[in-house]
Amino acid sequence: MSLPKDLLYSEEHEWVKKEGDKVRIGITDFAQSELGDIVFVELPEVGDEIESDEPFGSVESVKTVSELYAPISGKVVEVNEELEDSPEFVNESPYENAWMIVVEPSNESEFDELLSAEKYEEVIKED
Fold first, then answer.
1. Is the pLDDT of residue 26 over 90?
2. Where is 29: in which H helix or E strand?
3. Is pLDDT of 127 > 70?
4. SS3 (DSSP) at 44
5. DSSP state at residue 7
6. Rounded percentage of the chain residues whose pLDDT exceeds 90
7. Three-state SS for 118?
8. Residue 45 has pLDDT above 80, yes or no
9. What is the distance between the alpha carbons of residues 105 and 8, in angstroms, rounded to a whole number?
10. Alpha-carbon separation of residue 115 from 1, 13, 33, 56, 67 (angstroms)
11. Alpha-carbon span 123 to 15, nearest angstrom
């Protein structure tokens, strides 16, 4: 299982990559492996506001539908439209091709709530 060290993680299995004043968000390798084959991804629209710990979309696998929980609050400035036609990217490339949204964060202190790769690894070992 892949856990890039340069990312931050939420206990709800999302990853966060800081890119200047924006952040890119997706779901972790662990999450996609637990879900199985992803067949549909529902994401917010550009311009939507997301709220930390609140659902911002969902992924549907052959097994279940799972909510995506925002790791931070902010305004959606970009959405990965490719996932509409190619939801399998979530399984094949959770950290590269399957990023989900780019957000302008509205509360920098929320980064303090996120986990390092080491701390996230401890969380998933408990699951």
1. yes
2. helix 29-35
3. no
4. coil
5. S
6. 95
7. helix
8. yes
9. 14
10. 17, 10, 20, 20, 20
11. 14
57/46 Cα distance (integer angstroms): 13
CA distance 66 to 50: 17
Amino acid at 16: V
| Residue 42 host element (H or E) | strand 38-42
Quote the pLDDT of residue 1: 77
Average pLDDT over residues 111-122: 96
Inter-residue contact 66 to 58 (CB < 8 Å): yes
Both structure tokens of 63: 């097994």
**SS3 category, 14:** strand
Give the helix ranges, DSSP H, for the chain.
Answer: 29-35, 82-85, 89-92, 117-126
Calpha distance 20→18 (Å, rounded): 6
H-helix or E-strand spanning residue 57: strand 55-61
- Nearest residue to 13 via CA among 104, 126, 106: 126
* DSSP 8-state secondary structure symbol assigned to residue 54: S
